[in-house]
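Researcher: Please translate sequence to structure tokens.
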Amino acid sequence: MEGDIAENSDNADDILSPTSAALLGKYQLGKLLGRGAFGKVYHARNIQSGQSVAIKCISKQKIVKGGFISQIKREIAIMRRMHHHNIVKLYEVLATKTKIYFVLEFVKGGELFDKVAKGRLNEDISRRYFQQLISAVGYCHSHGVFHRDLKPENLLLDEIGDLKVSDFGLSAVTEQIRNDGLLHTLCGTPAYVAPEILAKKGYDGAKVDIWSCGIILFVLTAGYLPFNNVNLMVMYRKIYKGEFRCPRWISTDLKRFLYRLLDPNSETRITIDGILHDPWFVKGYNKEIYLDKESFFGGYLSETEDRKDTFLNAFDIISFSSGCNLSGLFSDSCESAVDGERFVSGETPENIIEKIEEVGKKENVTVLRKEWHIVLEGQKGNIIVEIEVYRLTETLVVVEIKFYEGLWRKKLSSLIYQPEYQVSSD
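Model: Translation complete:
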């Protein structure tokens, strides 16, 4: 079909020129930015708004043959719940017969790895990056998400030098935790992997991420890895025992902090709360800068877009069907991290939102709202329900509901789930 980008090409030179057909009539693809295990990443431009984005093109054949269907679905579900200034935004997911397209925030400053490769950074600069990293990681943990592959190659820098966490392909969610309260999948990059993962007895996803953050901080300030050896087993033994030395130029406070981060005993390793109170970390730290509630909604609105005044066009409606929305790409037997519904209603968006707010207040949960997008959060900051309302016509709206906790379906159904027309994926 037209716009099915380089479907049969693996040549790095086969990129779309400005005169080439646009992807599904919406994005003009440009130069190749990089390659991954499942496909390529391109720079692209939204034809209507002119906004720059990055588009990750994934081969359906590769993920089906490799048995990665659940992993890709989980990555999408996770990125849709992540709305934080220091996390790369996922704008939408599109698909054709052979490809899946992640439309992502374009972060043009490159990888943090490239910056460190030129030489170690001073402590003040390292601290600023680390504060942003911990803000993002803490946000993920509060929403039940564990990255599990944090490393400088997965940390990007924007045009003003702010850090952005990317690549949630190996991430886990609380739903994957077994009855023993631990995760068990072996994953991660060897030099950044935590000791408890090597022990193969199960691990706490949050503690594993903190270990990786410690490795990153060491690399930023030392210029090399704390655990490194050409013999993988020798390196693993050092990781398991926590055997490393800090270089002489690192300050006493930072050394003490690094030993708390890289504590081989996960039970005594510092927590996010402990990090936020560490003397080295808190220097110059302003929590409000990094934990801005407004950023929660950033993944849904482009710089020039206002959903309140936007009507769904033909492309948006088609995107609800199996042709362009990922929900119809795989069999129903595949697990999904989020249970969602869509329906068309004749009620006004204001009435729908007000009813949801009433339920939230009655149940004593936090209500976050921006225009026609509303989120209900539990006591630990975990998302319970997320609802977005789109204008379809002058008299009809599409309501999209995502239930992160199933029991809330019943609480909301009597108030708002009275669909006049079910949105079908056929």
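Researcher: Any highlights?
Model: The radius of gyration is 22 Å.
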